[in-house]
Amino acid sequence: MAPNFSKFVSRNNALAAGGAATAAVWILLSRKRQRSLKLDRRKVKRAIDEEVKYFISEKKENRVKAQVDKQFLKQLGQLLKIIVPGWTSPEAGFLFLVALSLVTRSVCDLWMIDNGTKIESAIVSMDKQLFKKRLLNFVIALPIISVM
């Protein structure tokens, strides 16, 4: 008589067997992946060690470092004469506007930081009126500052 496995194969048993098989396959694949990563890490570590040894043993040449000295200022002056032909030229105006916008932006950033700190202190002190006042100042100043 042929073996009868229908008694052993029920819905619950099939789900349990499928889950166990899936878990076994996942465990085997994760172990294989971990082994390959360990090998890769070892190779990478060896390569890094070799590079570090190379950089440590490498002798640095005496290089001339950039300095702000008389020669630098002289070269900067020569460049400015080329870039800005005269103080009444459009280039000088653009240079002045760029410098002015950078300074204005820095001042606005400092004001925003200060105002944010004041808003936080009003929150911590739980003063609703002071919080509303400082938040209103912040909201009013946002469109003006966004232009910078």
TrEMBL record:
Biological process according to GO: fatty acid beta-oxidation; long-chain fatty acid import into peroxisome; peroxisome organization; very long-chain fatty acid catabolic process
Boundaries of each ABC transmembrane type-1 domain copy? 79-147
Q: Which Pfam families match?
A: ABC_membrane_2 (PF06472)
Entry's InterPro entries?
ABC1_TM_dom, ABC_transporter_sub-D
Q: Which residues form a coiled coil?
A: none
Q: Which UniProt keywords apply?
A: Membrane, Transmembrane, Transmembrane helix, Transport
- Single Gene Ontology MF annotation: ABC-type transporter activity
Q: Name one GO cellular component term.
A: peroxisomal membrane
TM annotation in the entry:
12-29
Please identify the protein, giving its name as recorded. Answer: ABC membrane 2 domain containing protein
Provide the species name: Asbolus verrucosus
